Amino acid sequence: MNRRRLALSVATLAAIIAFAVPAFRAGAAEEMNVDKMISTAKTASDHEAIANYYKQQAAEARSKVDMHKKMAEQYSMSGMGNQATKTHFHQHCEALIRSYQTQANEYDALAKAHQDMAANAGK
User: Fold this and answer.
1) What pLDDT, on the 0 to 100 scale, is given for residue 74?
2) Looking at the predicted structure, is the pLDDT value of residue 46 above 90?
3) For a disulfide at 107, which of 57, 73, 96, 100, Cβ 3.0-4.6 Å?
C-alpha cells in the first residue's frame, strides 16, 4: 500500500511539474519577445504589435483596479467590524488601486506612442 501511495505521489508531482514549467516558460518567453520586439521594431506592424501588448498590460492593470475596489468595499462592509478598521485593510487596497491605475495610464501612454510610431512608419 505504501508503494502505491509513493508511486501516486511521484506521478502527481511529475504531472504538476509537467504543466507548471511550460506555463512559466511561456510567460518568460513573452517578456523576452517584447524586449526583442522593442529593440527591432521598424515597421508599422511591429509598432502595432507592441502597442497591442501595452494595451493588454493596461487592461490587466485595470482588472486589478476593479478587484481591489471590490476588496476595499468588502473590507469596509465586512463582519470584521473594528478589526478591519484597526488593520487598515481598505488603505492597502486604496494604495494598490492608485498603483495599478498609474500602471494602466503608463501602459496607455506607451501604447499610444507606439501607435503614433506605427502611423509614421515609412513616411
Assistant:
1) 82
2) yes
3) 57
